[in-house]
């Protein structure tokens, strides 16, 4: 559910990464405007590259960490894309829990035991590599309506360093190609699209590598079944006969003679994802860092669950990547269109992280004092866990390498938030903390589940959910704004298990 200053369609954010259905109903107006590796990977070697990565034995801790290898730990972290920008808001002051001590928000998260964080980068020109002057025009309105600029990739690199220094050692990066295809790309051949995507992927990743910050996970797109890789430059979904597309055009799109990203033409879309992974591996290797410790995944829309299971994890036809058919039922021939190194590689072998948005449904329980009401909000989460369990069990565990003993396919709740009503009263905070503990208890028995990242815990001045879905409270004083963490932030962080420290 995260909000990016690069709008997607946040109206019904339902995200999910490889086979789930976690629907999230959001405020259409405010949020909708804001949101949005290589060949066969040998993991037999290990080695330390950055403070973000870790190795360890496959021993088990059945108390705090649940039935998972001790080295795996448990991610209890946050999406923090906007924190650096919020620090620049005129008159904004961040406090510690006492409401009196001024404190850096990154430090507060670290002291609250958060152990992981998420940042997103975006395609040029909306996010430049170099830092840009801060735009303070209509700043309050733009913050509240989720139209605030994020800054640059350099800003995100600094945020990553501050997060790591504050104790949040696990880093999940989102590389986002954006909602629209650049006009200059519209006439590209498939090979030209692959080249452009690889260059853009490296542009977004390289500043982190230059700073010797290696992401533990790289996910592609933000809740992305809507973005540039999915929608045609003319605004219609490729593979569908709408907006005047002829049957011949549709067939050319489905069979690769026109670059397309629609899910109806999986081989091309999968090729884009493989190209992104390939570009990441090339950049990481060139930087002298260890590609064996970086895992990849998707963060995408839940309504395509059946499609995802079939084509990404090959639960049906293992050759589905190469057997696309046109509208006449003829099998497409992708040889000569999709490069062999992409066509012959398996997306399932590389996409190890099932990233999804795990917002409760509804966001606000019917009765915050009723256990039954609180538990009812996790119905979709339980369904999702059931679907992911099948995938995790199908692929089994790593027998060696840096993730020895862990499941090959693991789940991460990339976004989570809840709203127990306006005001953040002591009673609401208490019940929100109970609700959080219930969620942890649901996840604990599932070893393949890596953890959860709270969406923008410091974003409590905004129209979405009245700002009450964050982990902070706000006060307006003398033309400025004061932001203070609420106790649920500590409850969230207390679940973190960090054997890599």
Describe this structure in words.
The chain is an alpha/beta fold. The protein is about 30% helix and about 15% strand. It has 15 helices and 15 strands. The protein has helices spanning about 30, 85, 105-110, 140-145, 155-165, 190-210, 245-255, 265-285, 305-310, 340-345, 345-350, 370-375, 380-395, 425-445, 490-495, and strands at about 15, 20-25, 60, 70, 75-80, 90-95, 115-120, 170-175, 215-220, 295-300, 350-355, 410-415, 450-455, 470-475, 480-485. The strands form 3 sheets. The protein has an 8-stranded parallel beta barrel with strand order 5-7-8-9-10-11-12-13, surrounded by 5 helices. It has a 3-stranded mixed beta sheet with strand order 6-15-14, with no helix packed on it. Strands 3-4 form a two-stranded antiparallel ribbon. Strand 1 and strand 2 form a beta hairpin. Helix 6 (about 190-210) runs parallel beside helix 8. The longest helix has 21 residues, at about 190-210. The model is unreliable at about 1-65, about 230-245 and about 305 (pLDDT under 50).
């Amino acid at each position: 559910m995260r909000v990016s200053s690069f709008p997607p369609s946040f109206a019904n954010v339902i995200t999910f990464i490889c086979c789930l259905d976690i629907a999230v109903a959001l405020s259409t107006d405010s949020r909708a405007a804001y949101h949005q590796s290589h060949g066969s990977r040998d993991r037999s070697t290990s080695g330390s590259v950055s403070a973000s990565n870790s190795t360890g034995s496959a021993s088990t801790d059945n108390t705090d960490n649940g039935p998972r290898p001790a080295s795996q730990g448990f991610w209890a972290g946050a999406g923090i894309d906007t924190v650096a920008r919020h620090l620049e808001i005129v008159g904004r002051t961040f406090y510690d829990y006492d409401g009196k001590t001024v404190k850096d928000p990154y430090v507060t998260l670290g002291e609250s035991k958060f152990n992981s964080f998420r940042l997103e980068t975006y395609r040029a020109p909306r996010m430049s590599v170099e830092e840009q002057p801060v735009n303070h025009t209509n700043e309050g309105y733009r913050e509240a309506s989720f139209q605030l600029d994020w800054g640059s990739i350099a800003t995100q690199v600094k945020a990553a360093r501050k997060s790591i220094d504050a104790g949040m050692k696990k880093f999940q990066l989102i590389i986002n190609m954006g909602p629209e295809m650049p006009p200059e790309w519209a006439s590209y051949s498939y090979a030209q699209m692959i080249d452009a995507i690889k260059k853009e992927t490296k542009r977004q990743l390289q500043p982190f590598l230059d700073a010797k910050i290696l992401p533990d996970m790289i996910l592609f797109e933000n809740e992305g079944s809507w973005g540039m890789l999915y929608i045609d430059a003319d605004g219609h979904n490729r593979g569908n006969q709408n907006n005047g597309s002829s049957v011949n055009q549709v067939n050319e799109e489905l069979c690769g003679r026109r670059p397309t990203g629609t899910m109806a033409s999986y081989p091309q879309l999968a090729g884009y994802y493989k190209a992104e992974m390939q570009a990441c591996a090339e950049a990481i290797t060139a930087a002298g860092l260890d590609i064996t410790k970086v895992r990849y995944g998707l963060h995408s829309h839940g309504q395509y669950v059946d499609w995802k299971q079939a084509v990404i994890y090959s639960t049906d036809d293992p050759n589905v990547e190469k057997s696309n058919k046109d509208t006449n039922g003829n099998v497409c021939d992708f040889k000569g269109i999709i490069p062999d190194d992409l066509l012959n590689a398996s997306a399932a072998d590389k996409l190890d992280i099932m990233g999804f948005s795990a917002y409760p449904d509804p966001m606000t329980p019917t009765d915050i004092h009723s256990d039954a009401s609180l538990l009812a909000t996790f119905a979709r989460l339980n369904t999702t866990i059931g679907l992911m369990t099948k995938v995790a069990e199908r692929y089994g565990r790593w027998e060696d390498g840096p993730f020895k003993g862990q499941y090959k396919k693991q789940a991460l709740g990339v976004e989570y938030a809840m709203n127990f009503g306006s005001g953040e009263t002591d009673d609401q905070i208490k019940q929100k903390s109970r609700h959080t503990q219930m969620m942890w208890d649901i996840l604990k028995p599932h070893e393949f589940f890596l953890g959860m990242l709270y969406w923008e815990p410091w974003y409590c001045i905004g129209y979405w959910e009245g700002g009450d879905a964050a982990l902070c409270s706000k006060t307006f004083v003398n033309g400025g704004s004061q932001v203070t963490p609420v106790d649920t932030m500590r409850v969230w962080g207390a679940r973190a298990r960090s054997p890599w420290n």
